[in-house]
Write a structure and sequence with these properties.
2 domains, ribonucleoprotein, ribosomal protein
Length: 215
Amino acid sequence: MVINTETTLVMRCPECGRLERHRISSFSLVGDRSSLRINCSCGALKLLLTIRGKKVNLQVPCVVCGARHARLVNARTLWLSGDIDLFCQATGLELGHLGSEDRMRDRACVDEALDELDFMADSFFHNREVMYAILNHVNNLGRAGRLYCKCGNHRIEVDIFPDRLELHCSRCDNLYIVYAETKEDLDAVGRIWKIELVGHTFTHLGQTRKTPPQP
């Protein structure tokens, strides 16, 4: 029998925005070591783990609201079960994930692919932190089957602009705009649990703009 003693953190740095994977061993929290800091390669704190009896307290600096969120989990869940979501308690948007190396590699692949694109430079987005958080949320909705068109198409195309995402159904040309540059946009996205493209109309989510964006 193989007993797993590691978990993997996939999280974007709240300071520099870099996406990294960190392997964490349970042996790092035994004996006199009751706490463990996981830092980005830039030096910023990403996760603080502290032993609380048979539980582990997870503290996460939030890239979305600026607070430090805490979550108490069973040690058995952390090291054996895996797949723990870390999220902003103010908006509900996901910040990172803990789980097995294989699962976390899959979780990171979309974000890593985006990081390789030239337009992901800091100067491209109006608000990098808001865009990263909303991209992550929309991606999670798609993985959960909660991003789709009313025509039945679940393969929704996503075009990324400096201030918004444009979700497009290639089957019937429905369009859904998700704005991604303000705190109001984050709040709006954090309240939804699904996105459905409906009818041949322009629909938007987020802070109201004067006119629909042009291609």
